[in-house]
Amino acid sequence: MPSAIVLPMQTTLNIIQIVISILLITVVLLQQKGVGLGAAFGGSSNVYSTKRGVDKILFRATIVLAVLFIATAATNLLIQ
Predict the structure, then answer these.
(1) Which of 16, 30, 53, 80 is deepest in the core (most CB within 10 A)?
(2) Does residue 67 form part of some domain?
(3) Whole-angstrom Cα distance, residue 22 to residue 13?
């Protein structure tokens, strides 16, 4: 039987995980188009391209949000 502390914590983690997932979807959709799989097959004329400005921020935000999402999922799994 779950204790009185686990249920509010589990609900809070579920809400946090939903918010992180929405942010992660938004950040992925905001990233520049045409830099994905097409570049691997010669679709891009650039030999080497560095991420600058907003593209770099979105890239790092994607990594941070993905790590946070995995961490909240693991935490939620452990407290169940």
Answers:
(1) 16
(2) yes
(3) 14
Task: Output the DSSP codes for 48-64.
Answer: S----THHHHHHHHHHH
* Location of structure tokens 């914590």: 9
Token pair 């830099």: residue: 35
Which residues, in sequence order, are CB contacts of 32 under 8 Å at separation 6+? 55
- b/e 30-51 (16+ beta carbons within 10 angstroms → b): eeeeeeeeeeeeeeeeeeeeee
On whether residue 1 sits in a domain, the answer given is no
Q: What pTM did the predictor assign?
A: 0.73
Polymer length of the chain? 80
Give the pLDDT confidence of 1-59 residue by residue, as tens digits. 466 677 888 899 999 999 999 999 999 999 876 555 555 555 555 556 677 888 899 99
Count of domains for the chain? 1
In the chain, the amino acid numbered 3 is S
